[in-house]
Amino acid sequence: MFETKNRPAFDPLILHTSSLDRVSEFVSDFPVQLKVLGERFWPGPLTLLLPKKSIVPDLVTSGLDRVAVRVPNHRLTLDLLEQLDFPLAAPSANPFGYISPTSAAHVEAQLGQKITYILDGGDCQVGLESTIVGLENGQVTIYRLGGLDISEIEKAIGSVAIKDHSSSNPSAPGQLDSHYAPRKPFLLGDLDSLIAQQRAMGTEFAVLSFSSFFQEVDGENQIALSPTGNFHEAAQRLFSAMRRLDEGPASLILAELVPDEGLGRAINDRLRRAAAKG
C-alpha cells in the first residue's frame, strides 16, 4: 500500500469496518461523545479517532496511540467488509498528495498498472473525504474538515474545536500542508484579477469557479462547480473537475474560494491545500 501510493509512513491510515458493533474488536475505549456521533452518522463520511488495542499495527497509526476508524456508506464496500473478520486499512486510491479519485476510471488511470483489482461502485456521491473527529483534552475536536458538515456534528453533541492545522507530523490523515494537489500550478484568489493578469502575460490557463462562467475564457477551459451555488454539488464535483483541468491543455489552473460556511469550509480546505504545492 505504501509502495503503491508512494505514501510516507508518518501519515496514518484509516481502518474501515462494517458496523459500529465491530469497533470494540480493535479499540480499547469508545468515549460517549464519539459513540453518539458513530450512532448518528455511520455509515457515512465520518472518521473517529479512538484509542487503539495492541492488535492494531503501528504501521497503521504511524506509531500513534489512536486509530482512525470509519464505517463507509456504500453497499459494495460494506458487502466486502462484512465478509472479512478484520478491519481494512484503506487510503484513497491515488498517488500520495495527488487529487483524490472519485471514480473507478480515475483509479485505473493513476494506479492501474500497480494494482490487481478495482471495485467499481460508480462515482462517489459525497466527493470529499470523511470528516475526522476525536477528543483533545476532553473536547470533541475536528482534525480534518470533510463530507460531514460541522453544523451537523454540533447539532448532535454541541460545540466542537477545530485542529486541522497543517503538519509534517500529522495526528490524523489529511493534515499535511500540500495535499489533494494537481500536477499543474494551481493559483487561488480573485478570479477577475487572476484572469486579467494571466491574459496580459499570454498564459494558457484554465478556470475553476464556484458558480460563475467567464465569457473571455474558452468553455473547455473552465468549470463551475455548481452553477446554482449548491455546496453539496460543488463538493461532489470538486476533485473530478480539478482532474479534468489538470489533464487539459492549459498550463496552469486559476481557482477561487467558495463562501466559507457549511460544507464550503471543507471545500476551501481542499482548495488551499491544492494551492500550497506552489
Based on the structure given, which CATH architecture of the largest domain is correct?
A: Alpha-Beta Complex
User: Strand-and-helix sequence, N→C?
Assistant: HEHEHEHEHEEHEEHEEHEH
The main sheet orders its strands as: 4-1-3-2-5-6-7
Helical element count? 9
Q: What general outline do the C-alpha atoms trace?
A: globular
How large is the radius of gyration? 19 Å
* Count of spatially separate domains: 2
CATH class of the largest domain: Alpha Beta
Please identify which CATH superfamily of the largest domain we are dealing with.
DHBP synthase
Report the helical percentage: 25-40%
Instruction: Give the percentage of residues in beta strands.
Output: 15-25%
Largest sheet features: 7 strands, mixed
Mean model confidence by pLDDT: 94
Poorly predicted regions are none
Number of strands: 11
User: Within the CATH hierarchy, at the fold level, what is the topology of the largest domain?
Assistant: DHBP synthase
Structural class: alpha/beta
How far apart, in Å, are the first and last alpha carbons? 27 Å
